[in-house]
Amino acid sequence: MKTKIKSSHFFVFVSVKSLSLIFFIFISGCLNAQQKVIQLYDGIAPGSENWTWNEKETNKNVMNTRLVYNVSHPTLTVFLPDPSVATGTAVIICPGGAFRTLFIDVQGFDIARELNKKGITAFVLKYRLVHCLTDNPWQEMVDKVEDTKFSGANAPIIKMAIEDAKTSMIYIRQHAAEFRIDTNRIGLMGFSAGGTLTASVAYNFSVESKPDFVALMYAPIANYVEKKSVPQDAPPMFIAAATDDHIVPVSNSVNLYNDWIDSKHSAELHLYSKSDHGLADFPANRWIDRFEEWLDVQGLLKPGK
User: Fold this and answer.
1) How many CA atoms lie within 13 A of 36 on its CB side?
2) Residue 233's closest CA among 216, 214, 255?
3) Which residues contact 66 (CB under 8 A, 6 or more apart)?
4) CA-to-CA distance for 121 and 6, rounded, in angstroms?
5) Res 21 pLDDT > 80
6) What pairs with residue 271 in β-bridges?
C-alpha cells in the first residue's frame, strides 16, 4: 500500500514537473513568436505631423482576411530565419491594399515566414495610408473607387509611402550588423500597391536607399510611378502577374519588364494565363517557388562571405 502511495506521489510529482516544463516551453514559444517591431522614424513621420488617428485592424472584407488600416506611424516587423540556415540575404516586404489598407498576412507576414525557411531575413513594412473614416475600410474603398477624387486623395499619400519604403531601405542597411545581414544583399518586394512603392524606388533611388534586387507582383505602374530613364546601376528584377488581372492590366508588368530588358538590365517575368489579381489560384499561387529559384540563380540563397 505504501508503495502505491509513493508511486502515486511520484506520478503527481512528475506530472507537475511535466506540466511546468510544457508551460515553460509554451511561454517561451509565445515569446519567440512575438516579432520585433521597429518604429521607422524618431517621432512623427515627416509630412504627417497633423495626423491624429491610429492604426487599426479588421476582418471585414470579401476574403475575410486581416487588414490593417489608418497607418500613421510606419513600422518594420522583423522576421528572423533560424541561424543554422541564415544566408545573410534580406527582403523588405510591402503589402498591397490600394493605399487604403494592407493585406498584412497574405501579402506580408505569411510571405516573410516562407522566406525565413530559405534563410532570408524579412521585414514587413507598414507604410502610411489614406485615412479611412469608418470601421469598414474595404467597403469605404469600394464605395469610393469610381469617384474621380479617389486617385487624387491617393497621390500625396503615395509620395509619403514611397519615402517610407526608401527610409526602410536606409534603416536596414545602417543596421545590417544587428540583424546579421549583408549590406549588399538587401532587396525590396511589393504586392499590388506595395509594388508601386517598389517600382518607384527601383527607378528613383539614392546610394543609401538602393535595393540590391527587387520583386514586383501585379504592381500598378502607369500613372503611379515617376518613370525617368532606368538607372545605369538598376537592380535585377523579378516580376509576376496574371494575364486576366481585371484590376491592374498586365501591360503594367510587361512594360516594366521591357524597360529593364531594353536598358540591358537583368529581369525575369512570369505571366499566368488565369488567376486574376492576387495570384491565388493554382499554378499561379506557386509564384514564390519561382521567386526562390530566381534568388538562387542570383546567388542569394547561398550564405554570404
Assistant:
1) 10
2) 214
3) 57, 58, 59, 103, 104, 105
4) 52
5) no
6) 241
Separation between Cα atoms, residue 50 and residue 84, nearest integer Å: 45
With H, G, I as helix, E, B as strand and everything else as coil, classify residue 217: strand
> Length of the chain, please?
305
70 band by pLDDT with thresholds 50, 70 and 90:
very high
Residue corresponding to grid cell 507598414? 126
Q: Which residues make Cβ contacts (< 8 Å) with residue 13, sequence separation at least 6?
A: none
Question: N- to C-terminal Cα distance for the chain?
Answer: 67
Taking residues 91-110, report their average pLDDT.
Answer: 96
Q: Does the pLDDT of residue 7 top 80, yes or no? A: no
Between CA 239 and CA 110 the distance in angstroms is: 19
Sign for the pseudo-dihedral over CA of 126, 70, 192, 256: negative
Average pLDDT over residues 85-100: 96
CA distance 158 to 99: 7
The span from the CA of 214 to the CA of 189, in Å, is 6
CA distance 48 to 163: 12
Query: Residue 210 carries which DSSP code?
Result: -
Distance in angstroms (rounded) separating the CA atoms of residues 168 and 165: 5
Q: How far is CA 216 from CA 44, 68, 163, in A?
A: 29, 21, 18
For the chain, the average pLDDT equals: 87
Residue type, 68: V
